[in-house]
Every structure is written in structure tokens, then in C-alpha cells.
Amino acid sequence: MLDEFAHEPRVAYFTMEIALRNEIPTYAGGLGILAGDTMRSATDLDMPMVAVSLVSRAGYFRQEIDAQGRQLEHPAIWDPRQWAKPLDAKIAVPIDGRMVWIGAWLYVLEGSMGGRQPVLLLDTDLNENSSEDREITHYLYGGDITYRLKQEIVLGIGGVRLLQAAGFNIRHYHMNEGHSALLGLELMRRYTYSAEEVRPGETPYDIPRVRDLCSFTTHTPVEAGHDRFPYDMVQRILDNGFDIRVIRSLAGDDSLNMTRLALNLSEFVNGVAKRHAEISNAMFPGYKVHAITNGVHPFTWASENFRQLYDHYLPGWCHEPQLLMRADCCMPEAAIWEAHVQAKRHLIEKVQLLTGTVLKPDIPILGFARRMTAYKRPDLLFSDLNRLQEIARSHPFQIVLAGKAHPKDESGKQMIEQLHAHARALSGSIPVAYLPEYDMALAQTLTAGVDVWVNTPLPPLEASGTSGMKAAFNGVPNLSVLDGWWVEGCIEGVSGWAIGDAAGIPGDNARTLYDKLEQVVLPLYFNADRSGWIRVMKNAISKNASYFNSHRMMRRYATEAYAR
Ligand SMILES: *Cc1c(COP(=O)(O)O)cnc(C)c1O
Questions:
Q1: Which of 251, 60, 221 is nearest to 149 (CA)?
Q2: What is the pLDDT of residue 218?
Q3: Could you tell me the distance, in angstroms and rounded to a whole number, from the CA of residue 32 to the centre of ligand 1?
């Protein structure tokens, strides 16, 4: 089964979550979508890789929202047998004093252009294991910190061992966020000098060799967001024969900081946008953090109508999305507008089906969907309902929202309730629909079908953001705070619009958001001559989609990170 993949040297891409397809709920949000798009682009570009993740049999969760707007969480159980094949290879790793057996499922990612790429989904739900250990790979981001450490041992250490047992030939390791950083320790164990080669006081580990083999992408612009494990827990749970002093010297003195460990064991380190790399460089003095700005996968995120349009006017765009830079000159206005009208119709049908709310096709729709968590400020748009209604009296608009809050993020869940309360308060003046169960398929419908994609993170906390790039692939302009990718993507009034300024003074942003909507965005939409609006749509494609795609991103990883 593996013959097809086993011999060619590959880059192993380690990630806690990955969005392979809508039916497989092994992702929670942007990090997993990025991992999926990474592998999809590698497939289209014929870059031999293998992704390693957890099988997460109970998924993240399925979101239901009750009449009061409270989020109810249900397990999103999926059956790996339906989509993947079990591998014969099995390995064992000591965890919490027991040997835990780890197997893997092979999912074959089939590209839109004929390529195939292996994905290994690690699984501890094996007869050999105790019932407790069988659950280690069940819940994505579930359980407590001990459970998380066990998962990260399975991912990092188990992943490296399983790749070897299955016969893969790995030439480079890429850690997508710090969750998999323990893989570096496993490589250190592999590359150890013999006792005769080591002088007194020297460690036996060939760390330069390990570093050469590893790249690390950090995604979190705040220290508090990095996984840390107390060393007494590490000593109890992780038994890999390491002197704890060695781990301390690499991962921080007070606790095992996965980001520190990854930084110290990777030659190439990058942030996911230019601004984010600057912040990371300030956060980690002494390390060089490069910037490789994220992108989204062209075929996946262009709607059917836009795919057809691009195929017709810019053939080859799926392999070379830079061709989209010609969209502003080469594509007729009417064709773009018609493709958008179709995508909007599809969204309006979905909104009615899911919520009963009937939206109007000739009134603009503002879209906001992402993980519901405090720094994304989903409530910013609703901070002054009177002002919002006043704007709508001269220029009517509609709002579609979606997003999940992590089950333990109480403030995120409260925000979902508040958004529902705002929707009720606005009924009769501004239609607001909140769609449950934000997933890949809903993201496709939403980012293609709205007229403006809104994003209001609290700077500098949005490392990159990617949903706005999906919108750009569908000619949908962004109205966003200047943070993450939008710092690079926004050409004011040309490719979309900024809210506030780069300093991002929070109090200012609601007012500047309202001002920009009322004075610039909505008047342009309602202008009797639609060509001004369509020009911005075209520029979203030619200026943003042509660059913020995962093909460009992967070509950069290939030349700057993997080619060492
Ligand atoms: C793209 C996507 C995200 C990430 O969106 P951001 O704008 O980066 O927050 C999250 N969830 C789903 C389902 C997505 O498709």
C-alpha cells in the first residue's frame, strides 16, 4: 500500500490538526485549514511530502446553537475506515509509565490536478492499549494539560518513529506550530555520538544535525498562547531516556515551552505574515524569524463559478495563480458580476435553509465568520446598534455570521449569545443571520457569497488570518483592521478597505468601521454605475488572490526552508 510513497525522499509536515475534506472533522480552525492547503498545494506542485497528524476520532465538535444563542457541543465522531486505510506498521512509546502502542491510518490526498500525497493519522485506539490510552487520539484540543502532553508525545515522538517503521524516507521535518516540537527530541536520540566520541562535559547529541533537518512555523503572537508543561509533569509522563537538564537547556528553565524547544531545534523559523514575523523577532531575541505569509489553496477556495471564469480567461491559474494578476484587465465586468450573483444566490439559499432568514439579493451582505474568541472581536460591528441602524437607513445592508467557540472559552461562548441578542434587537431594520457549524463547506459558501468580508481582530493578535484570502479568490473585497495579512494585502480603496490605522486603537475602531462603511463602502456599492464596485472586486482577485495563495507560500518553503 505504501510502495507508491515509501522510497522518494519527502518532507514530513507535522500538525496537530488538518482539514483534509469537509467530512473529516480533524480541524478546529485556521491552523488546520492552513495545514490542508499546504498539502493540497504540495500535491498540485509535485512536492513530495507526507503529513503527520492525529486521527481525532471524536473530531473537534459539532456545534448546535439553541434558541437563546447558547452553543451546544456534540462529538463529531467519524469513521476512519470510510476514508483511510490502516497501516501494518505499529510502534510503541512510553507514556505515563506504560508502553502505548501507536498505529496509523493512511489517507491519500488527491489533488485537483492529479497528484497524490500521503497523510498519516496517528491512532492509539488499539487493542494493545488500556482504555485510557486508547482515548489519547480521540479529542482534538480536548481534555486537560496532561492529556495534551500525551497527545503531543504521540504526535512528535510517535510520528517520527512511525514514519520510520512504515519505511518513509524523510529528508526534512516541518513543525506546523509548536505542538509537534517533541519530534526534535526524538531526532536527537537518533543522532547521538557514541561514548568514545564525546568528551567530558559535552552532550552526546548532534544538535546541529537535528537543526538542519527541522523547520518551524510559529503562529501565536503572544507568549501566553504557547503550550507549556511543568517539568514535574514532564518527568512523570514523558520517559524518553533524556536527562531533564538537557530538555531544560532547550525548552526553558521553569517549564517545558514547546515554542522554545522548536526554536532551538530548527534552523529555519518563520512567522505567518510580515507583521507577525516582526512581533516574533521581538518576542524571541537571538533567533531569526523569517516571514512567509500564509496563502489559501486556489482550487479549493474559488467557487465553481469563479473556477470556470478563471479557466476560461486565465487558463493555468490552478498551477500558477500569479496569472490572476491579469484579472483586472482580462476579465469582463459582466462575467465577474454574474459569477458573484450566482455565489450570492447559493449563500442566500443556504441561509434560508439553516436559519429561516430570507436575505435579499440586491442588498449587500457583510460576512464575518471565524473562531469566536475575544481577540477576534466579533462584537465590534455591534458596539453601537443605533449608529448601525442609522447607517442602514440610508444604505441598507445585511449581516451573516458564523463561528465556533472552544468549549472551554466562556467569553467566546458568551459572544455567540450576545451576537444572537444583537440580531434580535436589529430585526426589522438589519437582517442578521448566525449560521451554526462553521466548517470548510460553510466557509466556501460564505467567503464566496457575501459582498464584503469583515475582520476586526485586536492588533497585533491576528498572526495572519486566511478567510479574507478565500474571499479574494471570489472577488469579494475585505474591510478589515490592519493586522496579519491585511497589512500586506490592503491597498486602500483599490483592493479593499482598512478599518482604523495600524496602531489599532480599540476604541477608535468601532467608529472608524462605521465611518468607512457609511461614507465609502456602501455608497460605492449603491452607486448607479456599478463599475467602481466591480473594479474593487477585480483588484481583490488581481492584487490579493494572485499573491495570497498557498502555491506561492509552498514555493517559498521549498526554496528557503526545505532546500537545505
Ligand atoms: C479559513 C477558516 C478559518 C480561518 O479563518 P481566519 O480568517 O483565519 O480566522 C477558520 N475556520 C474555518 C472553517 C475556515 O474555513
A1: 251
A2: 98
A3: 9
pLDDT at 223: 82
CA–CA gap between residue 178 and residue 533 (Å, rounded): 42
Atom of ligand 1 nearest to the CA of 438: 13
Torsion of CA 318, 322, 325, 326, to 10 degrees: -60
Give the closest residue (by CA) to ligand 1 atom 7: 467
Query: Ligand 1, atom 2: nearest CA belongs to which residue?
Result: 30
- The Cα-based distances of 530 to 140, 345, 536, 564 in angstroms read 46, 19, 10, 51
The pLDDT averaged over each successive group of 10 residues in the chain (564 residues) is 90 98 97 98 97 98 96 97 97 97 98 93 98 98 97 98 97 98 97 89 91 97 89 92 90 96 98 97 96 98 98 97 96 97 98 98 98 95 97 98 97 98 97 98 98 95 97 98 96 96 66 96 97 98 98 98 90
Superfamily classification of domain 301-548: Glycogen Phosphorylase B; (3.40.50.2000)
Q: How many residues does the chain have?
A: 564
Segments making up each domain of the chain, as ranges: 10-295+553-562, 301-548
**What backbone phi and psi angles, to 5 degrees, belong to 347?**
-65, -45
Q: How far is CA 7 from the centre of its chain?
A: 30
CA angle 321, 325, 330 (to 5 degrees): 110
Q: What is the pLDDT, as a whole number, of residue 201? A: 80
Task: For 280-416, list the strands marked E by DSSP.
Answer: 289-291, 365-369, 398-402
Alpha-carbon gap, residue 19 to 37, rounded angstroms: 8
DSSP assigned state of 128? T
CATH 3.40.50.2000 fits 10-295+553-562, yes or no: yes
Cα–Cα dist 339/336, whole Å: 5
How far does residue 189's CA lie from ligand 1's centre (Å)? Answer: 37
Q: Locate 43 and state its grid cell.
A: 500535491
Spacing, Cα 211 to ligand 1 middle (Å): 31
The pLDDT of residue 506 is 57
